[in-house]
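Incident log, structure service

09:12 report received: a user says their structure output differs between two submissions of the same chain.
09:20 pulled the input from the user's history:
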Amino acid sequence: MSIEMSMAAGTGLMLVVMLASARHLHTPPWKTAILSVLLACAGYTGAKLMFAIEAGGRLDGRSFFGALLFVPPLMVLAALALRMPLGDALDLCAPGECVMLALLKVKCLMDGCCAGMILRTTDSGSVIRFPSQISEGGHALLLCGVLMVLIRRGRWRGQVYAWYMILYSVGRFILNLLRETEPFIWILPAGNFWSLITLAAGTTWLLLKRQRAVHTAA
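09:34 re-ran on a clean worker, output below:
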């Protein structure tokens, strides 16, 4: 399947998930559709850029943390163009990105990348690995459901993307320990390093949001 067909199919699946949450944020379907296309483009570009950062300029791979970290600043322009609150736009992007990640893990499974660590070697000499791609894909789908519940409840409006960053980072840090990896910064593999960065960013986001709410209430 070509990259164009893959992106079209992925955007369609993201749109379904985003539409299911959009009604709770009173976002029109047409805005949600445009947002899903922009998210697909921003996510793909971000994943490519992050891989280039990790691999010294190469562009023959993807790193999902690029989507996670680069989408928020790119969505500033999208929110302005669509005349919608930035917080609502990012809330909708959060479960959409989880669908993107799950599809990316299917691609990883087909390509044989992101392999899990060797659990044991059989008598015939073949190896049994931890199912890294399947586990990370399942984690993404579970997280998608959690984020959709947060949107539906409404209590965390404008903060769902921050929770997405936190919850994804914690899960990815743990799962990355079961991958076959190499050090990236100090002794940390790239996945664990970016997990810590993203966890700090999401936590800071929530703390600043809470501090602003306290000052507003006062």
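09:41 both user submissions now match this output. Likely a transient worker issue. Closing.
09:42 reviewer note: The CA atoms of residues 165 and 198 lie 6 Å apart. The chain has a mean pLDDT of 89.
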